């Protein structure tokens, strides 16, 4: 895993001097501390690269890298797990080393950009320049595992691994805040692709190629997108579990490719434990890493220890109480190179810090909940499916009757939403409408960006259709926030994190399986649970999904109170149109325990820090 920066000028705008360019590149130093590369590819194009050496740690893997015939120059961040298979398909035998970057350059000359990226199985963000056509292309992996930001003002293009690199460039440093994107951030607690918080700043979508030519024309091509309603062909549980087992083993085996020490996160949950069972088959000496806490509600380290012992994996556990964890707050917040309000970044940062002491690559269980319906919200929306299509008055009557007359609740408050998509989006937003209007009154009449249609779907009476549609929304919605969090936390520790559940093979098999086998009343991620119990029957099945959390509500009333008060009340609020008195009221309401406002307060903190 690495970090890069590229600047492409299509007009007479003067390029940054090398010294200034390298200062911007240095912002992503932790993404690649092993070495640095720079290339003035043309008078109007310069590229820089910070390398975290994983495959072929020799100079043969250094970037920026040119293709054999010098048609293409590339900076590439990520890993391609099938690159050795691709080499077998290429009529080429003059490789200088065994890096996946070199494989990509040969593929580009043989197949062109679109066919090349469609053939890649891995996680990646890359900038590719074609010296013959003078076109520069930005490419992001199909699942959005690696981020790719850019600024474009029709004169200068700046592409980078981190958002702060883009908005620190002279062409974009004074850009105003985009009010539509600001509202989206406050509602979703991160900035999803293709948007940037400031005007003229953007992100490449998962599975997208964005190409710029020398005349300043920009083109978008979506080379891959998760299907919404693919008809399932596997409708039997035992068959589905067999497919999941074999494909997961294959994906993990592929992702063990590394020339440096490799391990895995082990939380005690279903997904990371399943990854552990597959690792054991192919990497007998693999190490796993666990964070433990003093919270009886959220700590899963004991369960993780049971799995590690059953698999005979080398486990390192770092137990921290709340006070100890808090001492790493400032350190973890440095990882926020963009607004991203997920306070579980602290435990993610800590487990990455722990793993980095012994390995450079770690496998994670992210993606399992989205592909195999592990979240409660799939059922929260689904249980209302019989009544969601009714008029508003009838829905309100059904909800009221059920709430006050029955003990076995058949519906929930999600029913009050007009659309299932609206209900789904509402489950993700912790910044209530009345708080948002008080803090940011100028945003009251501002609409969300039209291009943001993740939750734009309407009602369906078919439970399979609903689950598949919700999976699509999760994939391009909150999963992107989770991936961003993990990327920020791990890269701040110079640790590469791989996600086998988001391997192409795993995504494809998940789409082939009837979703009702995994999700339903009292069923969450049932197929994965069955596979795990089959592999490790000695560990009792998980009854309640815990998830690692931190006592932020308490911290905001105690240790973090001075920090949040200072940051939120002393910050320059004018770029955002925020009301200082409203923020002060939120702080007071939380401090006096009138309401738990940790989410809106942290959302503001992550923006203003």
Automatic annotation (TrEMBL):
Q: Which InterPro entries match?
A: Asn_synth_AEB, Asn_synthase, ASN_synthetase/amidase, AsnB_N, GATase_2_dom, Ntn_hydrolases_N, Rossmann-like_a/b/a_fold
Spell out the PANTHER family in the cross-references: ASPARAGINE SYNTHETASE (PTHR43284:SF1), ASPARAGINE SYNTHETASE (GLUTAMINE-HYDROLYZING) (PTHR43284)
Q: What is the lineage of its organism?
A: Bacteria, Pseudomonadati, Bacteroidota, Flavobacteriia, Flavobacteriales
- Report if keyword Nucleotide-binding is assigned: yes
Catalytic reactions of this protein? L-aspartate + L-glutamine + ATP + H2O = L-asparagine + L-glutamate + AMP + diphosphate + H(+)
Describe the location of the Glutamine amidotransferase type-2 domain by residue ranges: 2-215
List, from the UniProt record, the residues annotated as the active site of this protein.
2 (for gatase activity)
EC numbers listed for it are 6.3.5.4
Q: What class of enzyme is it?
A: ligase
Q: Which GO terms describe its biological process?
A: asparagine biosynthetic process
Provide the residue positions that the database annotates as binding L-glutamine: 100
Pathway noted in the entry: Amino-acid biosynthesis; L-asparagine biosynthesis; L-asparagine from L-aspartate (L-Gln route): step 1/1
| Gene Ontology cellular-component annotations | cytosol
Protein name, entry field: asparagine synthase (glutamine-hydrolyzing)
Supply the alphabetized keyword list: Amino-acid biosynthesis, Asparagine biosynthesis, ATP-binding, Glutamine amidotransferase, Ligase, Nucleotide-binding
Gene3D superfamilies annotated for this entry?
Answer: Glutamine Phosphoribosylpyrophosphate, subunit 1, domain 1, HUPs
Of which family is this protein a member?
Answer: Belongs to the asparagine synthetase family.
Binding of ATP, residues: 291, 364-365
Positions marked as site (Important for beta-aspartyl-AMP intermediate formation): 366
Name the Pfam families for this protein: Asn_synthase, GATase_7
Q: Which GO terms describe its molecular function?
A: asparagine synthase (glutamine-hydrolyzing) activity; ATP binding
């Amino acid at each position: 895993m690495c970090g890069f920066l590229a600047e492409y000028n299509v007009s007479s705008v003067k390029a940054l001097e090398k010294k200034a360019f390298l200062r911007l590149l240095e912002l992503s130093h932790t993404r690649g501390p092993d070495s640095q590369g720079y290339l003035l590819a043309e008078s109007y194009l310069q590229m820089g690269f910070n390398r975290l050496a994983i495959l072929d740690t020799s100079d043969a893997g250094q970037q920026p890298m040119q293709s054999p015939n010098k048609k293409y120059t590339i900076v590439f961040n990520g890993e391609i797990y099938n690159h050795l298979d691709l080499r077998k398909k290429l009529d080429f035998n003059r490789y200088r080393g065994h890096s996946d970057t070199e494989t990509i350059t040969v593929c580009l000359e043989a197949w062109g950009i679109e066919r090349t990226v469609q053939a890649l199985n891995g996680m990646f963000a890359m900038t590719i320049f074609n010296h013959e056509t003078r076109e520069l292309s930005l490419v992001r992996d199909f699942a959005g595992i690696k981020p790719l930001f850019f600024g474009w003002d029709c004169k200068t293009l700046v592409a980078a691994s981190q958002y702060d690199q883009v908005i620190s460039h002279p062409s974009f440093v004074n850009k105003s805040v985009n009010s539509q994107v600001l509202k989206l951030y406050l509602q979703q607690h991160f900035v999803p692709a293709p948007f940037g918080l400031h005007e003229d700043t953007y992100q490449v979508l998962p599975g997208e190629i964005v190409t710029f030519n020398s005349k300043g024309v920009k083109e978008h091509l979506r080379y891959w997108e998760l299907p919404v309603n693919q008809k399932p062909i596997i409708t039997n549980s035992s068959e589905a579990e067999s497919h999941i087992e074999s494909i997961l083993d294959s994906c993990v085996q592929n992702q063990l490719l590394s020339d440096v020490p490799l391990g895995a996160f082990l939380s005690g949950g279903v997904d990371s434990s399943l990854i552990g069972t597959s690792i054991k088959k192919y990497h007998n000496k693999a190490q796993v890493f666990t964070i433990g806490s003093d919270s009886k509600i959220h700590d899963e380290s004991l369960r993780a220890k049971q799995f590690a012992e059953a698999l005979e994996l080398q486990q390192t556990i770092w137990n921290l109480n709340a006070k100890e964890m808090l001492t790493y707050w400032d350190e973890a917040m440095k990882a926020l190179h963009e607004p991203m309000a997920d306070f579980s970044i602290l435990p993610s940062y800590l487990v990455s810090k722990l793993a980095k002491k012994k390995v450079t690559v770690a496998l994670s269980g992210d993606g399992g909940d989205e592909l195999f319906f592990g979240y409660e919200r799939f059922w929260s929306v689904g249980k209302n499916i019989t009544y969601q299509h009714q008029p508003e008055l009838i829905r309100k009557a059904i909800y009221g009757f059920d709430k006050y007359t029955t003990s076995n609740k058949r519906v929930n408050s999600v029913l009050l939403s007009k659309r299932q998509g609206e209900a789904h989006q509402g489950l993700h937003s912790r910044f209530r409408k009345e708080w948002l209007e008080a803090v940011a009154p100028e945003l009251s009449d501002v609409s969300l960006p039209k291009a943001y249609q993740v939750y734009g779907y309407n009602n369906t009476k078919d439970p399979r259709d609903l689950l598949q549609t919700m999976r699509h929304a999760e994939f391009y919605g909150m999963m992107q926030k989770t991936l961003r969090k993990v990327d920020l936390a791990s890269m701040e520790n110079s640790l590469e994190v791989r996600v086998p559940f988001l391997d192409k093979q795993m995504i494809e098999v998940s789409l082939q399986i009837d979703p009702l086998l995994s999700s339903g009343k009292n069923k969450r991620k049932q197929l994965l649970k069955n596979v795990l119990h089959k592999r490790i029957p000695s560990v009792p099945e998980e009854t309640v999904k815990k998830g690692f959390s931190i006592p932020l509500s308490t911290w905001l009333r105690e240790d973090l109170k001075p920090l949040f008060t200072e940051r939120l009340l002393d910050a320059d609020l004018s770029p955002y149109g925020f009301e200082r008195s409203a923020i002060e009221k939120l702080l007071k309401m939380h401090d006096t325990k009138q309401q738990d406002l940790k989410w809106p307060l942290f959302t503001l903190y992550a923006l203003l820090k």
